Amino acid sequence: MLFMQVAICDRDVETSAFPRWELLLLDTPHPLYSSRSILRLEWSTRSDGKWGRRNYHRTVHLDLSDDEINILILGTGSLPESWPDECLYDTDVHTHGGRSPTRENKSAAICRAITWVIDGHHKRFHIRKDSLVWSDSAWGLKIMNQVSPHIVETPWNNQNQKRRLP
Q1: I need a labelling partner for 43 at 20 to 30 A (CA). Which of 53, 101, 116, 157 fits?
Q2: Distance (Å, rounded) from C-alpha 144 to C-alpha 127?
Q3: Which stretches does DSSP call E strand in 28-89?
Q4: Cα–Cα distance between 11 and 135 in angstroms, integer?
Q5: By the 8 A CB rule, do 5 and 117 touch?
Q6: DSSP label at 92?
Q7: Domain of life here (predicted)?
Q8: What are the b/e assignments for 28-58, b being 16+ CB within 10 Å?
Q9: CB 3 within 8 A of CB 118
Q10: What is the pTM of this model?
Q11: Spatial contact of 114 and 7, defined as CB atoms under 8 Å apart
C-alpha cells in the first residue's frame, strides 16, 4: 500500500474579496486512518482587501469517497504526461515573495501550484488559472466542482473585524 498526497494551492491577485485556498487530498494505507480531502480557505481582514499578517481561516472537510480521492491523486500525477504544454515547472514561473501569487514568466498569468507525493517521490508543477486543464479535463472539473461552492466573498463586514467566521 502506498501513501499518496496532493496539495493544490491557489493564491489569487494581491487584492481580493475572495479567499485563497489550498486543497489537500490524502490517501493513507493505514487501516485506522481513512482518506481525507481538506480544503483550507484564507480571507484577508484588511478593508482594502490586501493580504496582511492576520487573516481569517476556515477548514472544510470535503465529502469525497476513498476511491474518488485515489482517482484524483493518480490523475494529478498523470497531468504532466497528459497535458505537457499546460504544466509549468519552477523555472517557468516566478513570485515576488511573501503573499504574492505565482506567475508564469512569459505571460505573467497567475498559476496554481500542485505538489504530488507518492511514497516520498515528489512532483511539483504549476498550471495557469486560465488553462484548459481546469475547464476541459475530468480531473480539473472535479477539483473545481468541489472547491467552487466554498469560494465566496468575504463572509463578514471588514469594518467589524471582531466578528468571527460562521
Answers
A1: 116
A2: 14
A3: 36-44, 55-61, 87-88
A4: 18
A5: yes
A6: G
A7: Bacteria
A8: beeeeeebbbebbbbbbbeeebebeeeebee
A9: yes
A10: 0.82
A11: yes
